[in-house]
UniProtKB/TrEMBL annotation:
GO cellular component: mitochondrion
All residue ranges annotated as the Aminomethyltransferase C-terminal domain in the record: 747-827
Domain GCVT N-terminal: 450-727
One matching Pfam family: GCV_T_C
Species name: Branchiostoma lanceolatum
Gene3D superfamilies linked: Aminomethyltransferase beta-barrel domains, D-Amino Acid Oxidase, subunit A, domain 2, FAD/NAD(P)-binding domain, Probable tRNA modification gtpase trme, domain 1
Domain FAD dependent oxidoreductase: 21-389
Family as reported in the entry's similarity comment: Belongs to the GcvT family.
Domain FAD dependent oxidoreductase central span(s) in chain numbering: 392-445
Protein name in the entry: DMGDH protein
Highest rank taxon of the organism: Eukaryota
Lineage of the organism: Eukaryota, Metazoa, Chordata, Cephalochordata, Leptocardii
Amino acid sequence: MTFLHSTTSGPISRRLKDEADTVIIGGGVVGTGLTYCLAKAGQKDVVLLEKTELTAGSTWHAAGLTTYYSPGINVKKVQWDSFKVFREVERETGQEVGFHGPGTIRLATSPERVDEFRYQMQRQGWNDAPQWLLTPEEVHEMHPLLNMDKILMGLHNPGDGHIDPYSLTQANAIGARMHGAEIYQQAGVTGMSMRSDGSWDVDTQYGTCTIHAQRVVNAAGFWAHELGRLCGLELPLVTVQHMYVVTGPIAEIKARKTELPVIRDLEEPSYYARQERDGLIIGVYERAELMKMQNRWVSEGVAPGFGKELFESDLDRISDHLEAAMEMIPAVRNADIARDVCGPITATPNHLPLIGPYMAPGLRNYWLAAGVYGGVIQSGGLGKYLTHWIMNGEPPYDLSELDPNRFSESWCNRNYVATKCRESFGFNNVIIWPKDERPAGRPTTRVSGIYQTLLDKGAEMGFHSGWEQPNWFAKEGDTPGYRPSFRRTNWFHPVGRECELVLSKAGIIDLTPFGKFEVSGPDAARVLDYLFANDLPKVGRACISHMLTPSGGVYAEMTVTRLGEDRFFLVTGSGSELHDLRWIEDHVWKGGYDVAIANVTDDMGALGIAGPRSRDVLAKLTSHDLSKKGFKFLSCQQLSLGGVRVRAVRISYTGELGWELYHAREDTARLYEAMMSAGQEFGLGDFGTYAMGSLRLEKGFRGWGAEMTVDNNPLEAGLGPFIKMNKHANFIGKQSLQQLQQEGLTRKLVCLTVEVEESGPDAEGNETIWHNGKVVGHTTSGAYGYHVQKSLALAYVPLHLAHPGTVVEVELLGSRRPATVQQGPLVQTHTARAQ
């Protein structure tokens, strides 16, 4: 059987390989970028299969924009690495990639956008890429064709620009083949089946020709959804139409000797404009109600033969965007439209790609590099990121916001995908606020039994992995609703009231969104001892424990409760449910452990109660001994509370006396009502996640995704008490920690009190820290501490600055605010106070 093998000069006949270590499906810029990175890193037997020809799909018609800018901290690293990969592949292959680097200027034409630029600057300083603010005069000097009437500020990324996607893809292919990879065109995948050992048989469109692979990577662009269905997967992807126009020559541009910077005019109707020879490419992102999705491709599949085709353009749909461009760049008014392009781009509900190993029942070694809405600029960095993960068994840095399992099939249905994708497209250039909330597609099926009750009591909900959970509660006299701001806003005083409630009386919080797993079987203790760095608790006890990566990063933090000798209950945060479960299941499978794992997240409700009167509240509902001796800290007991069977664990993320109460999800309303009735005389009330976040900062508690990520080791994070280096089990990451102990730490997590104005802003996390005019670190979390009445932040700083009393500066909205390193937590936990 004959297959077509890719070369730069045209296909040649060649038989498909029988075996491969990794099969990558999709020959766009993402798939070829990964193929190049894997082959260059030394992986043998890398094969890429392309349905038609390289660049078909979204790559060939892309505008090719490249930028260091991203509002997401971790995605900045992806795009930084992409630039490096682009330079490497061009240098190594001699294939020019058509890169132009005139820089990008984002335009601020409103005070709120000026604040956003300053907010993004405070998050950029500790990252690699240069970025700075421009005055209107500097904007005009760099781009003299702009109408300056409305421009208040520019945000400039030097080195940004654009690249030729076709040439880049060809360079990737040449480089991949130089390092031993094989690329086959006209080799569409028609079937996939997993063997019992987790390897794959991949059938191609040539019928009987099958390639056997240790792993497969779905990088199939707008075919990725169909490819997933071959394995029974319903991936959260949809194809959207993206339009841009190419103008004819513009005299003012033709007269210039240097290329104009790329412009992004962010206010509605938004657009980008980059120079294309003597004219401009003007690309738009329509409002949610105007944008177009290829919904039929979801139900019926991609139109047969669609590869290097385009959709019919609709210039009326984007006329207001073009008018805005002509107002901002008056020279455009005299230009002709030489060409218009309306092509497909694949997107996820929040327009961030799906990157990494995908978990589904019985599925192994299936990886995703799909929904890469950023396409070209993220291709090289994602290739490098996935290469490290595939070859080393762990990600090189935290990129959990791109986790492929963050949209679980248990709640993320097609309606949600379409509704959310429409919203995200329309929000392409909206202001990114701290604590950003977006309403489309909510609520999903993931609501607790008290959802409506809490709404009726003024709950302002946040969204966590499909769940609705109260952020805070608006009472009579408060200003309700979502009022985003870069400073303190309508929730500031209500959250203070909730903190006082927990500190002086008792508060109840809906914790149903927690990820909840039960692990049982003859090997349960053995595998958990290998996965977790802490000692396993005794029966009836619980502990905080961490799963580490082989290199010693903090992969996860969980509460581990031992229900029996071979039965455990694991609890994690809502945002890490499948992230953590995948890690556990993968190691159980690879190790051949005799263990059963049940994800009971959707079956169990959870309520938390905290505060000095919490014991009194529960005592009215049970005859069980709840005293300090009868129900010790970090112990677990089965109770009946108001007739509801409850698994009670004495622990609270607030650091106050408290319990987490796990129960059947259908009993949540009954339990809540019983507790509220019993707590009336003790002043029991509701509190939300914002108050819990403030209380945990005062106690110095670490948070996963902030203080604890794979980028941080537990020693610098101050997690030493939870890491048992002398435990018998040789837990994952132990050797790396031993090496770290020998080498010594270079930085440390500290608590800062920050001097801010009465209106804030307070730190949120990822702000740049300065000392003597130099960048020395970054914050990880921040909030106002209502008990200590100070603005707080946790931060990583060099060891020589980690001493109490040291003064550094935290950058907040363009101002460097004095911040003082504190000794330990500012408020002791209830347990410490009791001792």
